[in-house]
Amino acid sequence: MNSREKILAAVAANQPDLVPLPDISPLNFSQDGLLEKLTSILTTTGSNVIPAANYQEIAEYINANYPEAKIVSPLAELESGRLTRYDTTNGIDFQDVELAIIKGHFAVAENGAIWVTEDHMLHRALPFITQHLIIVIEGKSIVPNMHEAYQTIGNSTYGFGTFISGPSKTADIEQSLVIGAHGARSLTVFLLP
Amino acid sequence: MSAVTNKDHAELAEDFNRDENRVDWHDETLWWIRQKRDRIVHQIPDWELLRETASQIKHNVLSNMHSYLQQFEANALANGVHVHWALNAQEHNQIIRQLLKDKQITHMVKSKSMLTEECGLNEYLAEHGIEVIDSDLGERIVQLAKEPPSHIVLPCIHKKKEEIGDLFHMYLGTPSNVADPQILTEAARQHLREIFLTRRAALTGVNFAVAETGEFVVCTNEGNADMGAHLADIHIASMGIEKLIPERKHLGVFLRLLTRSATGQPITTYSSHFRKPRDGKEIHIVLVDNGRSEQLGRPDFRNSLKCIRCGACMNTCPVYRRSGGHSYHTAVAGPIGSILAPNLDMEKYADLPFASTLCGSCSNVCPVKIDIHDQLYKWRQVLVKKGYAPTAKKIGMQLMAATLSSPALYHTAGKAGRAALRYIPFAINNKLNPWYKHRDMPQAPKQSFRDWYLKNNS
Q: Is A129 in the B-facing interface, judged by CB distances under 8 Å?
């Protein structure tokens, strides 16, 4: 027997009698005040939240706040701006990106987590390797909690997907919160209608 | 780095207790985290239902692990992920070494994985000429200090910022006497960025693996697992077989519980779902047993396999907080470690189930409702029956059994004890009496209850 067979045999011999899965549907709740809840949690956990009417406003914000920055984004809506074109499949080539702008599928009101999949990232490394990150979401896409988040994700397929809930942070040195560990030093969330 | 020591928990705790100010500071820091946990937990109206649901899901996993493992394997393979099986720590380490050898890789970056600590991977690879750099800030700090982590979520919780400043001055070139967390974190960011950009192999742990889809989830606040995995050619994920959950939707339950229990945070900054490798890159999952299937076969102890490694039981434990993580001399310290470790080696870890007041606080905060303090109590019985109790305790128990079963002996002993306490207290109140160590001995009553009873009822 190889290790696989040995492990499976030991598990089969030792596991208890089958216990059914519980129903997780009672865990869903209130749809009230989602936008306020999301804004509040994102702000308290260190992100900027900015309501915007359209992509034009986002472009103006970027020009005003990142006048010199090297900016990378897969968003076609921002193409008329100052985006740097990247034609690469190598994540390391993104090491000098100062600002990345990506689109989120939806956000979770209870914890501020925004779901992003790799088809929205150009490269899996981009949201992490960039110095600063902007995620654009639509206000109507907010869900109350993680249960509805996974209902929304459903059976969709992705190679890589992640919930991002703020800037990279650590509290490993005497529990002092420091923003900007290895990933993006800031997260700005644009809320479109 | 696994802890190598011949001292038991009590002796190691005594070392830690020499610096009383540090004990107080350690105690207060962890209690502060426990309080943060309480505050955020009370904001979730269905918290208790959530805990119960998680516990039941895990129960289902334990009862169906055989088919979930095969389902996960089949789906992971279909996703283009390589799957390996390791019976024990040694095989786990060998598999990883071979994967690196095949690609001629001699330098690897690693994000947090307590399983690799359990397996002693870093030392093993070092012996074979492979350098491993830990990328979680806390783990990097203890790695520079040549120490094992002292806590599974907060690896350097026992270290003062000045000590970290000294380490960074010595190894990362920061100016001397700099202890500002902001400056030190920035220095670590620059140092580790260089590592992330140059390593061809990255290893991560696994928080949850989904049988239904073959994907796995890695949670970090720093983004270090992602920086490593996305920039490397080969991503190796080490996973204990108990980390499986049935369906993707169940992640919702566990991601709500994990960080709220761990640090009082609503969710980690990054909860990354790895399903398929990028084109031309590889993902390897190593499924590790290392005693888990055996624990599954122990009805009294199998619930310990429900653990999601949040560390809440450590933060609340009055013994952990005052004895420090290193006193547990095992990769997973604290209450949960004390019920997991005897499964691996009963003789070596026979002291750990006794390192508890059995107050039950660990079970109260556990997000998956593991009966930790009951298991600690049960382990004590198993260990004493198997003869692993310390000799002094064995002799003491035998003496006590003899005294309590003989009225004459009990009477004489009581009389002698009262007389000694009254006339020669130094014979009892001294260092040779282990009971006196942390307690004041009682005032001797003038008469025993028996004497009083005989006098008042005759």
A: yes
Low-confidence spans in chain A with pLDDT less than 50? none
The strand pairing partners of B83, in sequence order, are B285
pTM of the predicted model over 0.90: yes
CB within 8 Å of chain B, chain A residues 58-117: 89, 91-92, 95, 108, 110-113
Q: In chain B, which residues have their Cβ closer than 8 Å to the Cβ of A169? A: 221-222, 269
How far apart are the C-alpha atoms of B392 and A61, rounded to whole Å? 73
Facing residue for A181 by CB, picked from B32, B137, B241: B137
Complex confidence, ipTM: 0.98
Q: Residues of chain B with pLDDT > 90: what percent?
A: 84
| Spatial contact of A48 and A189, defined as CB atoms under 8 Å apart | yes
pLDDT tens-digit readout, B355-366 = 999 999 999 999
The number of beta carbons lying within 10 Å of the beta carbon of residue B256 is: 27
Q: Going along B205-251, which residue ranges are E strands?
A: 208-210, 216-220, 234-240, 244-245
- SS3 state of residue A190: strand
Are A46 and A166 in contact, with CB atoms under 8 Å apart? yes
Rounded CA-CA distance A92/A104 in Å is: 23
Q: b or e along B375-393 (b: 16 or more beta carbons within 10 Å of the residue's beta carbon)?
A: bbebbbebbbeeebbeeee
* pLDDT tens string B159-201: 999 999 999 999 999 999 999 999 999 999 999 999 999 999 9
Please indicate whether, in this complex, the C-beta atoms of A112 and B267 are within 8 angstroms of each other.
Answer: yes
Cα atoms found within 13 Å of the Cα of residue A72, Cβ hemisphere only: 24
Mean pLDDT of B442-456: 87
